[in-house]
Design a protein that fits this description.
Elements: H1 2-51, H2 53-68, E1 80-81, E2 84-85, H3 87-103, H4 108-120, H5 123-128
Antiparallel strand pairs: 1-2
């Protein structure tokens, strides 16, 4: 009986060691897969951004025109503040608002319309168009 118990105990220890090694290998493989996935996601985002560079330039030019226009924000210098680009405006409107809408699946026209609606609801626009 003692011999049987010793054999079973030895087998259980060996099985536990094997499972521990297998689990360690699986954890390593999972970590490597996650790293590869993160790399692929960054590459896909960069490729998407590169494909949209002309679109983004068009949106920024449109936004500059909206900033300048009488129906827009009425800023004579458009997307510039004190002779430098309004990076906060570009970040907020193009990257945070427009690109978020586009990456959610909206067409360029729908994203621009949503951006227009948001701009027309801004405090700056309402301050410059109190009668509307």
């Amino acid at each position: 009986m003692n011999r049987l118990l010793a054999v079973v105990t030895t087998m259980l220890v060996a099985l536990t060691a094997y499972q521990w090694i297998a689990l360690s290998e699986l954890r390593s493989a999972l970590a490597a897969t996650r790293q590869q996935d993160a790399s692929r996601i960054r590459e896909a985002e960069l490729a998407s951004f590169n494909r949209r560079s002309d679109e983004l330039m068009d949106v920024m030019q449109w936004l500059d025109g909206f900033y300048r226009s009488a129906d827009g924000l009425q800023r004579p210098s458009g997307l510039c503040v004190n002779g430098t680009p309004d990076f906060d405006g570009i970040r907020a409107w193009v990257f945070d608002a427009y690109l978020r809408t586009r990456t959610a699946g909206a067409s360029p026209e729908a994203a621009r319309q949503q951006l227009t609606d948001t701009l027309l609801d801004s405090n700056e626009w309402r301050a410059k168009h109190p009668a509307r």
